[in-house]
Amino acid sequence: MIECVPNVSEGRNRAAVDHMVGAVAAAGCRVLDLHIDPDHNRSVLTFVGSEAQLFGGVLALAREARDRIDLREQRGVHPRMGAVDVIPFVPLDDATMDDCIRLARRAGGAIGERLDIPVLLYEAAASSDVRRNLAAIRRGQFEGLGDKLGKPEWAPDFGPSRPHPTAGAVAVGARDFLVAYNVVLATDDLSVADGIARTIRGSKGGLPGVKALGLPLAERGLVQVSMNLTDIRATDVPTSYGRVEAEAAGLGVAVVESEIVGLAPRVAIGEATTTSLRLDRELEGVVLENRLASG
User: Fold this and answer.
1) Which of 6, 194, 276, 293 lies in the 20 to 30 Å Cα band around 106?
2) Which residues, 6+ apart, have CB-to-CB distance to 73 below 8 Å?
């Protein structure tokens, strides 16, 4: 069994997202979770299946996203470069990283050839070291893709050498578990979230394995520290929450709530509770193992 956690650049048109989820399910994949965020204008699907099921599922998803999302009009606070922005494969059970790399390359090739969308491989499937980091691939976003893909070091691994006019490009990769985790702060001052994100970012000497951004939540008049926990054994969810809460308290700002985007393996949560993390939904409902066991 392999897990797939694609991000699509649509979080406001529920009918369009439902069509994408339906295409994945029709391919035989088991959909475990759907997270829709209108501020980010982004949705995160979590589904599992065999290599054959996931190949069909991601191809169907990419086709639906290409046909239903126009990035020339799409806006949201989360950086994006594609209608389907990223497609990661994660090994579960007896699956190996090599299985996921093989699937990423096969699926990436099919998306490029059949859907005319440029594909860049990342993380463990990357074709060069410069492409391992998703943030580096996405830098410049959809609007900068034309110039970026024209450079030899960013030539697509599959598909055309120019962006799809409405669907952009997609990063397809293989990786270990990652937890997308956001902490919402009781202020509309984006500089507060930006400053905390810089402080805790692993690349700046903060928490190991943490990528972080400060983002506005315009509809709520709040801001959030948006994190990717890329090494959950080095920095888990409770540790990252505690650090953000402490940094915010030092600035006189309270935490409103936190959210786990998609699902998280139990090891990433430790002894935390719904209350201790101020989670926006019940903790047991976001534990990957629980969803897998629910039948």
Assistant:
1) 293
2) none
- With bands split at pLDDT 50, 70 and 90, how would you rate the model's confidence at 78? very high
Global confidence as pTM: 0.94
Contact (Cβ atoms closer than 8 angstroms) between residue 174 and residue 208? no
DSSP 150-178: TSGGG--SBS-SS-BTTTB-EEEEE-S--
pLDDT digits (tens, 9 = 90+) for 177-202: 999 999 999 999 999 999 999 999 99
Neighbours of 2 (CB within 10 A): 22
Domains of the chain: 2-174 (3.30.990.10), 179-293 (3.30.70.670)
Give the catalytic positions in this structure.
78
Q: Which residues pair with 174 in a beta bridge?
A: 89, 123
Q: What's the DSSP call for residue 187? A: -
